[in-house]
Amino acid sequence: MPLLSSPRKGRRLIIWLHCCGTLLAHSCTAPGNCVSLPCTFTPNIIGKCNRACNALALLQTVAAHPETRTPFLEAEIPLYLFPFLKTTSEAKSFEYLRVTSLGVLAKVDDTEAVKFLLKNEVIPLCLRIMGTGSELSKTVATFIVQKIMLDEVGLQHICATPECFFEAANVLANMVVALAEQPSTRLLKHVIHCYIRLMDDPRAYAGLRTHLPEALRNGTFDNCLRDDPAAKHVLQKLLDKLAGPTGGAPHPCPGPAAGRSHGGPAQAGPSHTP
Ligand SMILES: *[C@@H]1O[C@H](CO)[C@@H](O)[C@H](O)[C@H]1NC(C)=O
């Protein structure tokens, strides 16, 4: 796909992408509105959902391709997706648009892309969806947050202030509680990966020692993970990491066994050693 073999073709691509974005923003009076204001979707856009989703599928390809990713970001095309991400309707067609839009953001995964997502407040947007969306949109939103965290810049951003960290930690903890009621192995796996990555930051690690949901430590998910050795392994990795870096933990720590014993509620302990 030699789309960018010449500057002219590059410009053409950008124009094409903006047309695509404008099509997506169809129900707003002007595309500019969509970028900054949460626009209200009228019922008639639902009829156009399929077309919008086709355009979004194309955008996913553009976002994923190494040759087109940079112009895709430079032209700020992801901003066209935000109105879809901000919708809260539970109607199927809106859910479909949200998931497909998240799918576009999920394709961008280098530092440059992470900076773009941070600058445009994608984390609060994803956190909201993680708290309210369907299982599928929660999974994709968590996946995006996980990808952002995996980048050093992203992790630093989330752990920059206690407010920011605890906002993310609370959303994750609420998800764990919800998952105990309504299990989803794939979603749980992404949540655990987020916790594991957060622990790479010393302040976040200290916070999670006392704030990691009990359900992750007391065997609540044993059943859910029984048929998924990889997921089980990931949970074990989290518990090992929580227990300390070298195995020789300096104070009583909730190993998986201790956490499971009924008489001893797993406490992370008051210690704040990094
Ligand atoms: C594990 O912890 C959760 C949350 O505190 C609690 O609801 C659940 O009953 C516990 N399960 C076991 C087996 O102790």
Automatic annotation (TrEMBL):
Family: Belongs to the CNOT9 family.
GO BP annotations listed: mRNA catabolic process
Keywords tagged on the record: Signal
UniProt protein name: Cell differentiation protein rcd1
Annotated region described as Disordered, given as residue ranges: 245-274
Pfam families: Rcd1
Signal sequence, renumbered to the chain: 1-25
UniProt entry tagged with the keyword Signal: yes
Cellular component, GO annotation: CCR4-NOT complex
